[in-house]
Amino acid sequence: MAQPSVILATASYDHTIRFWEAKSGRCYRTIQYPDSQVNRLEITPDKRFLAAAGNPHIRLFDVNSNSPQPVISYDSHTSNVMAVGFHCDGNWMYSGSEDGTVRIWDLRTATCQREYESRAAVNTVVLHPNQKELISGDQNGNIRVWDLAANSCSCELVPEVDTAVRSLTVMWDGSMVVAANNRGTCYVWRLLKGTQTITCFEPLHKLQAHDGYILKCLLSPEFCDPNRYLATASSDHTVKIWNVDGFKLEKTLVGHQRWVWDCVFSVDGAYLITGTLKGAHVREQEGGDEPVGGVLEPEAAAERQVVRDAATTGRHVVAQRTRVTGSKQAATSSKTSRSGDDIVIS
């Protein structure tokens, strides 16, 4: 099976995973996923495999095969798996779950190599660009940094007590981290290296971004520089784009009929893809607020979406730079166990 230049996959509460042609919006492969809903999708850096995080397992599928069966299954979690991602070389995978643990997996043997206790349901996990630290956020409002070399928690902070941290994002160069919570607030820290190479958080900004939950926050990719943006997706049916220089509101994207569960930038920051219960919308950063590539609408509402561009090197992307008028484009993403549309491009 020939691999498309852009891989777009979605997953839904209808217990299916679908692969789409990114430009035409045509579904060319459907995988039945009867065990549970899919909470998150992620594609390996080499574009060979797709990880689907469910309840309570993670299944790995071959992107280039027509087989409906997973290649391997990871089964140590005991509740919803809410986060999944890969090391840049693709040798290991990390995950976070509502069972209160963050785990690291050997991809080949499906064995859990490490387990970190968060003591609360884990909603989000990101890998620091240095590839040596994981940062997790949980339902009780705790943010923890897990030092993989020391095999321990090196830093812990609570921006708001008893307010769930819903999403975390780290700037591509490791200079900044943003945490978004259930009260519509984003907390921004500058990341500093201490004398013992431990990442330290220096408070930089507090942003009241939305009136409702923030379901996803995302910093723009490397090739968007020198401009740097923060996108926030919310239960208030909007997505907002903020300039990181002073955190001035640049644009509010409206027109979504439901909660916006996810968003993702294209590799050059020219496009932003947003995901709702009604489908995925592609919007041009420098253009208006209306979708430029149409809406990707599966037969049942998509819960999670993921896209990987051939030109990328393991980073998440959203759409190709070329604007395809009148066609459907999409990206990749993931989300929580509630009903929504996750998008993520890598």
Structure description:
This protein is an all-beta fold and 346 residues long. The protein has one domain: YVTN repeat-like/Quinoprotein amine dehydrogenase (Methylamine Dehydrogenase, Chain H), CATH 2.130.10.10. It is built from no helices and 28 strands. The protein has a four-stranded antiparallel β-sheet with strand order 3-2-1-28, with no helix packed on it. A four-stranded antiparallel β-sheet has the order 4-5-6-7, with no helix packed on it. A four-stranded antiparallel β-sheet has the order 8-9-10-11, with no helix packed on it. A hairpin with a 5-residue loop joins strand 24 and strand 25. The radius of gyration is 18 Å and the shape is globular.
Topology, element by element:
Layout: E1 6-12, E2 16-20, E3 27-32, E4 40-43, E5 49-53, E6 58-62, E7 72-74, E8 81-86, E9 92-97, E10 101-106, E11 112-117, E12 122-127, E13 133-138, E14 143-147, E15 152-157, E16 165-170, E17 176-181, E18 185-193, E19 199-208, E20 214-219, E21 229-234, E22 239-243, E23 248-253, E24 260-265, E25 271-276, E26 279-284, E27 295-296, E28 302-309
Antiparallel strand pairs: 1-2, 1-28, 2-3, 4-5, 5-6, 6-7, 8-9, 9-10, 10-11, 12-13, 13-14, 14-15, 16-17, 17-18, 18-19, 20-21, 21-22, 22-23, 24-25, 25-26, 26-27
Distinct helical segment count: 0
**Biggest β-sheet strands, sense, barrel:** 4 strands, antiparallel
Helix vs. strand class: mainly beta
Query: Reading side by side through the largest sheet, how are the strands ordered?
Result: 3-2-1-28
Distance between the termini: 20 Å
CATH topology: Methylamine Dehydrogenase, Chain H
CATH superfamily: YVTN repeat-like/Quinoprotein amine dehydrogenase
Q: Work out the oligomeric state of the chains in this entry.
A: single chain
User: Whole-number average pLDDT?
Assistant: 82
Per CATH, the architecture is: 7 Propeller
Q: Percent of residues in helical segments?
A: under 10%
